Amino acid sequence: MADLRLNAAMGRKKKGSGAESEERSSEPNAFGALDALGDLPAGPEALVPISPARTSKRGQKNTRRGRVDIVRQTAHRGGKAVTIVKNFTGIGQAEKQDLAKLMRKACGVGGTVKDGCIEIQGDKREEVKRILLEAGFEPVFSGG
């Protein structure tokens, strides 16, 4: 037993030592008390991703949420392009934040919600259009 402790302190273990397996079996099982409880729930259900698209009262996806404008802007930004989505109707700040997060992740760039508009860094109009179509909006390219 002293050899085992000495070798363990030095970071070495003896192979084929039966004393070590005897020590493990004598320790109490930490989860043994859970077996006595019987039928425990299996765990949380599969997480459902939060979708920014709202559903109607009848449970169908709302595909007519209104027109939104997608604009590419470079003015006052040092020549860098920014994609701006504006003219949302009937949508709250929280849903704009969710949409912006989805756009940032899909485009792999930064962005923000400012003055009721979603700003995405870079010229990402096509990717933004796809996301807005999936959310039920009617995106329209406007401006230059």
TrEMBL record:
Its keywords, alphabetically, are: Initiation factor, Protein biosynthesis, Translation regulation
* Matches recorded under CDD domains: YciH_like
* Domain SUI1: start-end pairs: 69-136
Q: Which InterPro entries match?
A: SUI1, SUI1_arc_bac, SUI1_dom_sf
Q: Where is the composition biased (Basic residues)?
A: 55-65
- For region Disordered, the annotated ranges are 1-65
What's one Pfam family here? SUI1
Give the GO molecular function terms: translation initiation factor activity
Q: What is this protein called?
A: Translation initiation factor
Q: Which organism is it from?
A: Haloferula chungangensis
